[in-house]
Amino acid sequence: GLSGAASFTDVPGDDNAAPDITSVAVVASSASSVTLKVVAANYPALEQGTWFNLYFDTDASPATGILGAERLVRYVQDVGHVTQLFSAAGLQWVTQAPAGIVSTYDAGELTLTIPRRALGGADPLGVHVISGRRQPMGAAVFISSDFAPNQGCCINWAGTATPSSVDPTSD
């Protein structure tokens, strides 16, 4: 089981004005839930129009799901914050009730506690985190983003293993 912790780092400065992900840590907080911590270097508080997408590979196969992920947990900062849960069904995401997911963003750190049942009870897991931010410029809207890890689809772990990811600067 996920009895330990795992983490990886992401080099600062590759954010294009999105929340600059510098680290992601996963901790098995109990037999029934998993806690993830995502640190963003440049946003002590999130602005409106900012989000984090956490894609989970729940079957340890990058060939299944949508882009290799079977679950998506989305944290959106607009008026307050909203946490959403989606499951892959063919080529689309289907909204699920986010029951039991607890999320906070404080001092540049997103903390999510997710019931294992929301992730299909998966063990081991893989995760890919993408931060994003809408940037209106006149009539146009640009989307800035940062990925962690930058290489590959997901970082996989199973308990005490500590995967790592090197993030090139200015990407």
TL;DR?
0% of the residues lie in helices and 53% in strands. The protein is an all-beta fold and 171 residues long. Strands 4, 5, 6, 7, 10, 11 and 12 form a seven-stranded antiparallel sheet that branches. A five-stranded antiparallel sheet has the order 1-2-3-9-8, with no helix packed on it.
Set out the fold topology.
Blueprint: E1 5-9, E2 21-30, E3 33-40, E4 50-57, E5 71-78, E6 80-89, E7 92-96, E8 102-106, E9 109-115, E10 125-137, E11 140-148, E12 155-157
Antiparallel strand pairs: 1-2, 2-3, 3-9, 4-5, 4-10, 5-6, 6-7, 8-9, 10-11, 10-12
Description:
The chain has about 170 residues and is mostly beta strands. Helix content is about 0%, strand content about 55%. Strands 4, 5, 6, 7, 10, 11 and 12 form a 7-stranded antiparallel sheet that branches. Strands 1-2-3-9-8 form a 5-stranded antiparallel sheet, with no helix packed on it. The termini are far apart. Mean pLDDT is about 80; it is low at about 160-165.
- Strand fraction: over 45%
Structural class: mainly beta
Cα-to-Cα separation, first versus last residue: 35 Å
Radius of gyration over all CA atoms, rounded: 15 Å
Shape: globular
Classify the helix fraction into a percent range.
under 10%
Could you give the count of β-strands? 12
One letter per element, helices H and strands E, the order comes to EEEEEEEEEEEE
Largest sheet descriptor: 7 strands, antiparallel
User: Which segments are poorly predicted (pLDDT under 50) over 5 or more consecutive residues?
Assistant: 159-166
Number of helices: 0
- Kindly report the average pLDDT value: 80
